[in-house]
Design a protein that fits this description.
Layout lengths: L2 H55 L3 H12 L4 H38 L2 H29 L3 H22 L5 H23 L13 H32 L2 H14 L4 H19 L3 H28 L1 H6 L9 H17 L2 H6 L4 H54 L8
Length: about 425
């Protein structure tokens, strides 16, 4: 595949990734305006906890599925179908066990950590969504590995958010619990589309077997990485729920979701290049790998810098659309946007490590960054609230990217900052 074809894929996946990011932002806007800062804060806090646990329930199998499907697709569809089916069975079992624990202990931990029983009610209501969303994510990663990038993006965040938005507008008297119910039904619809997209790979006549050992062996180091990365992503909201108010959680959640617009194109790039990294490295074509990394770096920086500039210049204006109670996080948004800028500049360093057999190096970097996040979160958020959460998140993400950048340069033999 030449540079023009890759660029065409970037533009196509970038467009749909942008649509997905805007849909997420629209959902955030509607929930914030309809529920208000306090009730939407309960929803966002419950969503943060459940999403964190959902990612843990996948045990690192998402990236394992991506890598194994990328390598085996077009060579042995029976193996691909076996990988996907095995991952879905494992995640379903783990999800059900985790659901039982949540339903029995959520009230205790909600009172202990958040001193608010209503948080446990929201979390309990979200439990069915946790399992469905994990299945959807595995399907999206499998589709990405099969180079069905548009379908993967649709399953990741377009279909669910389209239906979520429609239902949110149609239903009057919205509450945090009603929003959770709508989220679940939207996720079920999303799962139905995902199963439909996978139908060709499960055609008749294929020899399908359960590949427990292969998946679990590859997923072991990836599970620690997932745990640490989810800590970087969600700990700010969770610790804000401990030390702050629901309104502060809502403000930070909105700022975090706006800041993610900065890196949407990097996510689109990852969709295209992650499977190619695995194939090029496995075929020992380091020269082609370096060219691909340089090309993606140039495109990503050219698109990201203007977006960051807009977010910084209009940070206060963004929050005006969310209504009363959303005037505390414009500075936090600037900090988070700058953190995402560094994320974009360093490029797809995480995928470069995980797709080239250096999962252990990535794991060590993730553990160091997560520990740094833990220290900063409990030190800063207690005294500085939303801004403390932004600093902790941005600095920890920056540390993780810089450590991964060093590891890619040293162990893969590629310098993502070398753009020529």
């Amino acid at each position: 595949m030449n540079s023009k074809q890759i660029l065409k894929l970037f533009i196509s996946s970038g467009f749909y990734r942008a649509v997905g990011s805007l849909l997420v932002l629209l959902v955030t806007l509607v929930i914030a305006k309809k529920l208000g800062a306090e009730s939407s804060g309960l929803y966002f806090l419950g969503f943060a906890v459940i999403t964190f646990l959902a990612n843990l329930s996948r045990l690192g199998l998402d990236n394992a599925v991506l890598k194994l499907v990328s390598i085996n697709y077009r060579h042995d569809d029976g193996v691909v179908a076996s990988i996907i089916l095995t991952a879905l069975i494992i995640i379903g079992g783990v999800g059900l066990a985790l659901s039982f624990l949540i339903l029995n202990w959520s009230e205790f931990f909600s009172l202990l950590l958040f001193e608010n029983q209503r948080v446990s009610i929201v979390i309990d209501k979200m439990v069915p969504y946790m399992v469905i969303s994990s299945w959807c994510f595995i399907i999206a990663m499998a589709l990405q590995g099969m180079q069905k990038l548009i379908q993967s993006i649709f399953i990741t965040n377009i279909i669910i958010n389209i239906f979520f938005l429609v239902f949110l507008y149609l239903i009057d008297g919205l509450s945090a619990l009603r929003a959770v119910e709508i989220l679940f039904f939207s996720a079920v619809i999303n799962l139905s589309f995902g199963i439909y997209f996978l139908r060709p790979i499960f055609r008749k006549g294929l020899k399908i077997r359960l590949v427990w050992k292969e998946l679990v062996t590859l997923a072991k180091p990836l599970f620690i990485i997932v745990l640490c990365n989810q800590t970087l992503l969600w700990l700010g909201q969770i610790v804000l729920g401990i030390y702050g108010t629901a309104a502060e959680v809502s403000n930070f959640a909105v700022a975090q979701r706006i800041s993610m617009l900065v890196s949407f194109f990097l996510m689109a790039i990852n969709l295209v290049v992650a499977p190619k990294y695995a194939r090029l490295y496995n075929s020992n074509d380091l020269g082609a790998l370096k060219k691909l990394v340089a090309l993606t770096g140039r495109i990503n920086i050219a698109i990201t810098i203007p977006i960051v500039s807009i977010v910084i210049l209009f940070s206060e204006s963004f929050f005006a659309y969310f209504g009363d109670g959303y005037d505390k996080a414009s500075f936090a948004l600037i900090i988070l946007a700058l953190g995402q800028l560094l994320n974009a500049i360093t490029g797809s360093v995480g995928y470069l490590l995980s797709m080239t057999g250096h999962e252990n190096k990535m794991r060590n970097n993730s553990v160091a960054s997560a520990l740094f996040m833990l220290v900063l979160s409990f030190t800063l958020i207690k005294f500085y609230g939303v801004n403390g959460a932004a600093v902790a998140t941005a600095f920890s993400v920056a540390l993780n990217n810089l450590l991964n950048l060093y590891s890619v340069n040293k162990h893969v033999g590629v310098n993502p900052l070398k753009l020529t």
